[in-house]
Amino acid sequence: MSQRVALITGITGQDGAYLAELLLSKGYVVHGIKRRSSSFNTGRIDHLYKDPHERDVRMFLHYGDMTDSTNLIRIVQETQPDEIYNLAAQSHVQVSFETPEYTANSDAVGTLRLLEAIRILGLEKRTRFYQASTSELYGKVQAIPQNETTPFYPRSPYAAAKLYAYWITVNYREAYGIHASNGILFNHESPIRGETFVTRKITRAVAAIKAGAQEAVWLGNLDASRDWGHARDYVEGMWRMLQQDHADDYVLATGETHTVREFAEKAFAHVGIALRWEGSGVDEQGIDIATGRPLVRVDPRYFRPTEVDLLIGDASKAKAKLGWEPQVPFDTLVRDMVDADLDLLDSVGR
Ligand code: NDP
Ligand code: GDR
């Protein structure tokens, strides 16, 4: 069998990096789209990259952007992928309230542009398509837990853009017979999670506070509950979806939910700091029991105009049809993220 070729949009992001690693380990040729940036943005994949002049090079990067149709069509034409993983997105929910039009352009219309590229180039029967859909689609949740049949109720410009992307993926599957699947993924984190998502913001702060380099961490809604898994497990699920005979939509989740407060508590506990909670709402504080110092504080700046209060997924379809199950428990995830941030701080300090 000839070498399989994959194209990953968003290869420089958290999931793109884990997915590239997985596909390379399976023998794929991996093409990735990266954006032009004034500073390096390939830190998460530098360990996978080889100079194109070396032998056995299987990963190639192309400049591109989800807002540029001509660029996407050209890259798909040049790379002739067997599988496209559409991970590129303005992926920050709070930022989407500030940049709603850009978020719609890249996350919603960007998905359409890629699907159209497949069609324009006559690749409907050859190229399989994965869409990075999200538990944010459930928004104001209509059922607990959420599965593939739970109605959507988006609560942000990000989620509304991803709703379009979800349905256009379903539509191109039904209209043109493209093997196009949605992975409805619940939150997944890792040591290479973007620094402004709440888990990584907390674990970086815990490391810095422990080292005496930071006083406290300012957070928003401590009551929000999320179903947090490990990104490495979730990219395996993406790949499995594209290996099925028929395209379909699947939830990937752990089936457990924890509040932001609980995440912070566990992260501090891992470095030997026990917190007690005082006050409520904007006055709530996480106090270090040993010293009486407030280490977690609330800043309403981080509250969202509309919030998603509680997510908990039911991934039984993925278990039955893909044989997929998450491997990394919540406690291990928190511990690994804190340890990685302690190591990072240590290596910078050296
Ligand atoms: P990241 O934010 O870490 O990565 C996003 C990637 O998209 C980066 O490579 C980024 O490039 C790229 N990108 C952003 N905008 C554009 C654009 N206009 N054109 C081209 N590339 C662009 O996200 P994750 O890896 O965490 O998530 C991957 C995908 O999965 C996203 O679509 C996200 O919305 C979705 N998702 C994520 C979940 C999670 O919990 N992580 C859960 C469910 C869905 P750059 O590095 O230059 O910024
Ligand atoms: P989310 O992730 O919005 O679920 O989207 P994020 O980590 O940003 O927020 C999770 C919850 O924590 C609350 N929160 C804070 N969030 C941030 N970022 N910063 C804070 O200081 C803070 N304090 C409290 C939020 O209000 C929220 O309730 C992620 C992204 O990866 C999306 O791309 C993806 O689709 C979903 O997960 C599933």
Automatic annotation (TrEMBL):
Catalyzes the conversion of GDP-D-mannose to GDP-4-dehydro-6-deoxy-D-mannose. Coiled coil: none annotated. Keywords: Lyase, NADP, Nodulation. This is GDP-mannose 4,6-dehydratase. Its EC number is 4.2.1.47. GO terms for molecular function: GDP-mannose 4,6-dehydratase activity; NADP+ binding. One of its GO terms (biological process) is 'de novo' GDP-L-fucose biosynthetic process. It comes from the Bacteria. It is an enzyme of class 4 (lyase). HAMAP family: GDP_Man_dehydratase. It comes from Magnetospirillum aberrantis SpK. Residues 7-337 form the NAD(P)-binding domain. Pfam families: GDP_Man_Dehyd. NCBIfam families: gmd. Belongs to the NAD(P)-dependent epimerase/dehydratase family. GDP-mannose 4,6-dehydratase subfamily. It catalyses: GDP-alpha-D-mannose = GDP-4-dehydro-alpha-D-rhamnose + H2O.
